[in-house]
Amino acid sequence: MPKFTVAIAGAGLCGLVFALALEKYAPDVDFEIYEAAAQLSTAGAGIGVPPRTWYILEKLGLDQSLLQLSGNGTKPKMPVLYRKSDQPDGFQFHQGDSSGEHAEGLLENLRSAERIHLRKRVVSYTQPSDGTGKIEIQFQDGTTATCDILVGADGIKSRVRTTLYTHLADVAQAKGDTAQAEELRPCIPAVYSGASVFRGVLKREHVDGTLAHLFDADSSIVMYCGKNKHVVAYPIQQGQGLNVAAIVAQYELANTIYEGPWVHDADRETVKETYTGWEPVITDIVQNMRTWSKWAINVVKKLPTFVDGRVALLADASRSCLDVIGAADL
């Protein structure tokens, strides 16, 4: 008898964690992961893991391997220091607790890595209207695959979400409910949040003594705050790198369609001008960073549902949180 099959579109963090959960708790379920990229790699950023998510990762047995890749390499939590920094003489005004900050480390725990199929970008799917039979997935390369359940973890530009909401809107239109169809179609595209992030990873060997303390194993996450801007810095790669995210908000542009590439290289002078007049540590970080990139933070509108029949949306395909701590949130 054929196994029950689950197809996961996207080998990002949530797609991999979902696959690991199936592997551990549903060994009789067959799953395949379809990833658009030619190879799996990191985005060069830390990953914020809230306590309830860390609990799940512990239950999956992932905590120790992730700790070996974390900022301090030993414990899942780091303190967060908040500073008033948009002035030369900055000062700390609050200290709080943090979630753990972790880099990649999920793929090595997947026992069935051969189930990950690269260069397989989902473009659409067809779901039988009677609820029986297999779902057929169409890929950009012209090939197809079938499954019993499709989980779209294919990111902010999710083609699974596009197909799902196009279908829901078309069904509503066919029933004569034009108002509902008009409410559903805007759920398809992602919209600009009004915020952009300058990202970079500062290597320990590229800094002098003035910034060395930020790389310490027992260092903190530091939020350098200003009006409509802030910079987040914390150690990753067991103190060999400093993840830096400099966020700039223009909230009057929220809910618009962002024109141009969402991610592109940024020059140091642009970042420096953006944070002119801030406390010296920010100037030093900007000056020592070898390369910067700029990310436009786009989000998914609040969706009325994440499910249609045997197709479901997961992670950024279903919602995308505004980046406030400079990390990808799991």
Structure, explained:
With 330 residues, this protein is an alpha/beta fold. The chain has 7 helices and 20 strands. The chain has helices at residues 13-25, 51-59, 63-67, 159-174, 178-184, 268-274, 280-288; strands at residues 5-9, 30-34, 47-49, 80-84, 91-96, 100-102, 116-117, 122-126, 135-139, 144-147, 149-152, 191-203, 221-226, 229-236, 241-249, 263-266, 292-299, 307-308, 311-313, 328-329. Strands 5-4-13-14-15-12-17-16 form an 8-stranded mixed β-sheet. A hairpin with a 2-residue loop joins strand 18 and strand 19 (311-313). Helix 4 (159-174) runs antiparallel to helix 5. Residues 325-330 have low confidence and may be disordered.
Uncertain parts: 325-330
Report the helical percentage.
10-25%
For the biggest sheet, the summary is: 8 strands, mixed
Counted by DSSP, the helix tally is 7
Distance between the termini: 36 Å
Strand content: 25-35%
**How do the strands of the widest beta sheet line up side by side?**
5-4-13-14-15-12-17-16
Shape: globular
Helix/sheet category? alpha/beta
Radius of gyration: 22 Å
| Mean pLDDT rating | 86
Number of E strands: 20
What string, H for helix and E for strand, traces the elements in order?
A: EHEEHHEEEEEEEEHHEEEEEHHEEEE
